Predict the structure.
Amino acid sequence: MDVSISARHVNVTPRLEEVIHEKIGQLDRYLDALDYATVHFDEARNPRIADKEFCEIVLKGRGHHLRCKVRAPDPFTAIDLAEDKLLRQIRKLRTKLHRRHHGTGATIRSGVDTQLSNVALVDQMAALDVEEERIPQIVKTKRFHLGPLTPDEAVEKMENMDHGFFFFINKETARSAVVYRRDDGDVGLIDEAG
């Protein structure tokens, strides 16, 4: 897997690069559909933040997109935490792909179904050393009227309901949109492309 490393306010040492390639660059052995990884480090300049190192990793390949963000006291710990998160995500994806193919042991490789023996599949799953994880189910459904709102009005409604996001019709664009609370405390806006 190709690995791209970038950093802001963090010195990426040769040893750190080596660890990234050892841990993140080898994740494609658990899901061979992964082709590319981007690893980005940043350091918080706020003295009140305990875990100053921020690491974001994105894995892509053949229609799959896995992403994780972690904070840690140092970049090496951040890579360890990110590897654990990504392994859980890969495990869920493999389980989903396995179930999609009705227990045949099939996985997607280059857009073509390729059969893996059940023994090989079990061996690869065991290598993750992660317990069987339950795939989330939809347990609650809400219906509400989507009246047109400005993004500022949507942010106000989100804050009033104490939710992490709010879906609405953007009055300015007449398209679906979402405002959401970001990790840095600010608010993001996702607007449907026209």
Residues 104-119 have pLDDT under 50 and may be disordered.
